[in-house]
């Protein structure tokens, strides 16, 4: 208990600059943890939804029926968004008798590439903030440490006989700033690396699906146009 009281007293008695540094770091830590929890949930759900949709897609369901089912939903993400964008563009272009299968597939693939870009952007939300917290928090904490130690030595120079008990509290409060900086940075760096890898896995998963779906639509377009090449 005494250790906790000692640390609390150091925080209270710290200089304004050091207290501001600690406050900024604590706010950054709380924000990063909130984003970590939310991003973890979103990425986990994205992976589960992708597997569910692929199971349904490859079950042999009619694509028009599946499109109507997906299109009826108010919010569509992940593979469903790619499927919706690709099938919608394919159907629109395929209705035009002047469009050859090559032109139809180029438009369809463009629509899915745009959809893929939007999905990756959605999955990467908050990751730049986590990267920023992980990279600058130690330096902010170090600034508080340097400032606190500098003030301790300035105060030490004003007395004729210096003792360790005079300078120790100032150095201790300064080092707390570094500790808080590391406390904010380490989880942010770990989460950023983990989430970045998960986004890469999902992006590859989405891209593979878009390619396979494009091949299916391409065969349909060639059959409809009587193009056996």
What do you see in this structure?
With 229 residues, the protein is mostly helical. It has one domain (2-224). The chain is built from seven helices and no strands. The chain has helices at 2-13, 16-57, 63-71, 78-94, 101-123, 127-156, 164-224. Helix 6 runs antiparallel to helix 7 (164-224). It starts with a helix and ends in a 5-residue tail after the last helix. Residues 1-5 have low confidence and may be disordered. Part of the Tol-Pal system, which plays a role in outer membrane invagination during cell division and is important for maintaining outer membrane integrity. The chain crosses the membrane at residues 16-37, 127-150, 170-192. Residues 79-206 form the MotA/TolQ/ExbB proton channel domain. It holds the Pfam family MotA_ExbB. This is Tol-Pal system protein TolQ.
């Amino acid at each position: 208990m005494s250790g906790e009281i000692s640390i609390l007293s150091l925080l209270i008695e710290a200089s304004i600059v050091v207290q501001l540094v600690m406050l900024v770091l604590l706010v950054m830590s709380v924000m990063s943890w909130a984003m970590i929890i939310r991003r973890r949930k979103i990425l986990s759900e994205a992976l589960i939804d992708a597997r569910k949709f692929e199971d349904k897609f490859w079950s042999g369901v009619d694509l028009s029926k599946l499109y109507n089912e997906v299109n009826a939903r108010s919010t569509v993400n992940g593979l469903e968004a790619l499927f919706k964008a690709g099938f919608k563009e394919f159907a629109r272009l395929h209705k035009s008798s002047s469009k050859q299968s090559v032109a139809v597939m180029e438009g369809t693939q463009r629509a899915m590439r745009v959809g893929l870009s939007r999905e990756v952007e959605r999955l990467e939300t908050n990751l730049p903030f986590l990267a920023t917290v992980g990279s600058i928090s130690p330096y902010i904490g170090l600034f508080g440490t340097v400032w606190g130690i500098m003030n301790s030595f300035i105060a030490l120079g004003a007395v004729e006989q210096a003792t360790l008990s005079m300078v120790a509290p100032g150095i201790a409060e300064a080092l707390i700033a570094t500790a808080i900086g590391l406390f904010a940075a380490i989880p942010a760096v770990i989460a950023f690396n983990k989430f970045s890898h998960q986004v890469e896995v999902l992006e590859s998963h989405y891209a593979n699906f878009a390619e396979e779906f494009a091949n299916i639509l391409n065969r349909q377009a060639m059959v409809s146009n009587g193009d056996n090449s």
